[in-house]
Design a protein that fits this description.
The protein is of the alpha+beta class and 111 residues long. Helix content is 27%, strand content 21%. The relative contact order is 0.29.
C-alpha cells in the first residue's frame, strides 16, 4: 500500500486504558501541536498530555535532536495522541518495510 500520509507507531493506546484524569491533563484524539511556553519543561509537557517524555523527544527529533535541554519557548512541538513515534510515510514505503525499520510487529502500526 503506497500513500503520502503520516502513520503512528504506537507502543500503547493510552486513551482507552487510562483512568480518571486531573483537570490539568489534556488527552489528544489526533496528532496535534503545542507551542512551548516560558517555564515549560519536557516532563511538564509530557504530563500535561498524558505521555511519556520520550514520546515528546522522539516525535520532535528535528528540533530536540534527542536532547530535552534543546526545548525553547516558541517551539511548535508535535503532540501524539498515544505514546510512540511519528513517521512521515514515503511513497515507496510498505507497512512491512516500516515495521522492519523500527523493529516492531506490523500489526501495531496504526494508519
Amino acid at each position: 500500500m503506497k500513500t503520502n500520509m503520516g502513520i503512528l507507531l504506537a507502543t500503547a493506546i493510552i486513551l482507552a486504558s487510562c483512568g480518571p484524569l486531573s483537570q490539568t491533563k489534556v488527552m489528544a484524539e489526533a496528532v496535534g501541536t503545542y507551542t512551548v511556553q516560558k517555564g515549560d519543561s519536557l516532563f511538564g509537557i509530557a504530563d500535561k498530555f498524558g505521555l511519556e517524555p520520550q514520546t515528546i523527544v522522539w516525535s520532535n527529533f528535528e528540533f530536540l535532536q534527542g536532547d530535552p535541554h534543546m526545548l525553547k519557548p516558541g517551539m511548535q512541538l508535535t503532540i501524539l495522541p498515544v505514546d510512540g513515534i511519528y513517521y512521515e510515510w514515503q511513497a515507496t514505503d510498505t507497512i512491512e518495510d516500516v515495521a522492519a525499520r523500527f523493529r516492531v510487529d506490523p500489526d501495531i502500526i496504526v494508519a
